[in-house]
Amino acid sequence: MKTTPRSPLLLALLLMGATCSQAFVMPKDISEAERRRFERFQSFQIKGVCGDNDLDRLSRLGVNTVRGYTISSPEKMREKLDRLQSLDMKMVVSEWMPHQGKNKGKNGGSWDFDYNANGDKMVQAFTKKIEAIGDHPAILMWGLGNEVPTDEPYLRVVNRMSQAIHARFPNHLTSLTMVNAKQDAIEAVKKFAPDLDVLGFQSYSTGAVRSSVKNGERFWGKPFYMSEFNTNGSWNFAKTDWGVALDEPVAKKVGDLKDCYAAIDASRLCLGSTIFIWGYYAASDRPTYFSLLLDPEPNGQPKMKSFDHLLITPQAEVMYQHFTGQVPSGNRAPVLSKLEFEGGAKARLAKPGEPLHVRFAAKDPNGDKVEFVTWILDSTARKTTRVAGPFPQETDETAVINAPDNPGEYLLLVYAQDNKGGASASTLAFKVIPPEAESPALPVETDQP
Questions:
Q1: Listed residue (164, 152, 228) closest to 190, CA to CA
Q2: Would you tell me which of 103, 198, 245, 427 could form a disulfide with 237, CB atoms 3.0–4.6 Å apart?
Q3: Is residue 23 over pLDDT 80?
Q4: Are 287 and 35 spatial neighbours (Cβ–Cβ below 8 Å)?
């Protein structure tokens, strides 16, 4: 198959990046069949992202692997794999699988699924898919479910799927993902799905990544990878008095992400990582948690299909630098270095229509002029929605934004952008209280360490 050659400079960067991580060491206590499947990792590390769009830019950023979440159809999957092969990239091809018992519906409510009753049909349908997709060279491994609880009925079906893959493609790797790397979950996989080759761990925060790496080595003892990771999620953040998470500074996220990569590379059993998420992610309260790209027109909803206009963040630059061993050349994203209400508060109460005085600052590695843009988001629901904005602000490092008239919980979303394709973002929390309520004292929350 014809491939698109990389530039000599990019090839040199990628080769330099390959020397930055500790080499994978083949485990001793594995079968000869497993050994053949893992041979590729003696000269290959997963340098990946979760998401399988925007492939040209990903290739330029040193990414060699993308992780999918579902197989829409064998035909479309083969087209995707052909495109990846042309870029010398690989894919973790993943089959979406339900939970045993209760499952959450997309539009609320729940529905039930029983692997005991439906396992045969599921294995048969999956077997037809893998036979239709075939032995494609861009397949790095197969993923069987995403964060499905490791109940026995699910794992027994997973084991049958893994056997079906190995029977047809003996050198293909099979995997599943789990939240963190808990001993009981790993032991369940060993007992009920022994045919699996690889475990994927999904951990958020430096501490959680380090713990998963340690437990993977101790309890699994075979190759694994970080199938999802990033810095702290909202569940680890400090919170306001009304329970809303306070965002962490951009510089802290950048430093934590570097530490996560260091922990991943320190393990000789870890095959690499796919960071969550390549795209604009707003499904969990706000887009500033895990997005490696930012939408210049955020509306609180994920926009995963159009990538050309999305802005590169400092976190994406950390990924590039780690994968290539080089500081990005050309334009660099500004880092939002200060974001606070008057008096240093990260959160506050306000009356309807009250002016909110905001202070901000940013550092741009290229020395470019930085523009600050602010939106007001409604944060009462799990998915934030835009209420007002954008409010552009020149670089005088202050702004006055009027609180909404309706009482409720809100966020100020602030971008620092250079108008050359780079941006970083963070949020402040505030709550509009009824006019007759007691006048709030400021600040409610102060800077977090």
A1: 152
A2: 245
A3: no
A4: no
